[in-house]
Amino acid sequence: MRFELSTSSLSIALTALFLSTTATAQTNSRYPKGLYSEGLKVLDPPNLASSAVSATSLRAIPSEIPYSCYGTALSRENKELPAINCAISSLEVFEVTYPDCERSWKMCRCSDADLSREDMMELFGMLSPNLRAQVRNLMAFKTSKSAHAYTSNEDVVVFGDLRHWTVITHEAAHVLDSRKGGLSETAVYEDAIKKDTCTADYYAANAMTRGDVKEPWAQTFVVNTFRKLGGVLKADAGCMQNQLDVVADQTDDFVKKSRCDMSMATTEGPMFERSPSEVLDKSITIENFPASLTAVSPSKTAYPSSDIVIRMKESEDEKSAGTTALRTTGWGIATSILMLQLWYMN
Ligand SMILES: [Zn+2]
């Protein structure tokens, strides 16, 4: 079965988060800048490998592709996003398992993606198991823009050299929010925002100026998760305590459990076989994957250490910007895409 993604078949509304070092955050009187005015990257660990659960197996899937990976790889340019332009013959598909969950995940990457297979396994391994279990597929592609990520249905798609715990957690939070029927849009969370005097960061504050509660909810989830995993905030989070309490009540089961709960895990989407013209390029060595791995190689990108003392997760510092929401209608199915765009200085 062939899926043709045509521009006319899509109607898109995009939600994107932009983070930049120039941090020209918009403000309003009620949410002046957020607890972390420069963004949540202060909560990122110094390197991924130290905090990630190592994958236990990796298996190439040379002849099949998750339907959603196929569609994403061939995505055309639209007003919010550039075309991805990954030839199907360059799309690698592999299956990864972790020791803390009975399910496995299909991951897809274009052969020129900045993130290697090991990087993807490592990044995904940073999610707590029950949160990881909410996500269906992880994808990685190259981008001509700054590194960014978005969620599409239950998939997380990463562009460029993006290795931020805060970003992957933010994206997984959107999946969780959606799968649980809109935790961010409940009266209890909206009441909490009204009672509080700040949001998590400039990004959440910017979203609030547009009445978007999904982004502040996701950023609150990141802050709550950081604390529940043993992180110590240097900033006084009292100004967003009501949001933290609500999100903790809604989601602590997804943060604190040491194993995934399969009854809450997402299910795999449809797969289809590659056509003869889309057979995986022989130059791609995916067929040579080891049958199993006991450890993930350390990330080449080490984050600067910080003075934030935590047991499991550590830090760095971060940046600014705006949001948009992406609502896609394709294949007769209404699809919602939330996009987090990360602009950061190198
Ligand atoms: Zn977002």
TrEMBL record:
Signal peptide: 1-25
Keywords associated with the record: Signal
Keyword Signal part of the UniProt annotation: yes
Protein known as: Lysine-specific metallo-endopeptidase domain-containing protein
Species per Swiss-Prot/TrEMBL record: Ascodesmis nigricans
Organism phylogeny: Eukaryota, Fungi, Dikarya, Ascomycota, Pezizomycotina
